[in-house]
Amino acid sequence: MAVGIKELMARAEAEVRSVSHTEAQPMTQDADVVFVDIRDVRELEREGFIPGAKHAPRGMLEFWIDPESPYHKPWFAEDKTFVFYCASGWRSLLATQVAQEMGLKAASLTGGFGDWKRAGLPVEERKPK
């Protein structure tokens, strides 16, 4: 194997801004910040999500971000900062790296939704938009 997950993660960590759940929680009130949950829909249904978050499945992320894609989501074209998260922060770290490469202002939630939930921060149980 030429490159493994450890090296990919190390590269992403060097390039990506990461925020802890403590730093991220007040950002949920900022109209210029969009939280993006990239977990599988079954994870959302089972665990809930950060209130107000949008859902963008990891497998569709690049297609939803690119305005030239037939799958583009207009909310990704807004002049906002996007905070990506997954369960533990690994998938979202790589997703944030890709989003930055595609021109978005982005950050990754360190420790993911797991740390958020363990900290007792607000969790919403309905499906995100």
Automatic annotation (TrEMBL):
It holds the Pfam family Rhodanese. InterPro entries: Rhodanese-like_dom, Rhodanese-like_dom_sf. Residues 29-125 form the Rhodanese domain. It comes from the Bacteria. GO terms for molecular function: thiosulfate-cyanide sulfurtransferase activity. This is Rhodanese. It comes from Pseudooceanicola nanhaiensis.
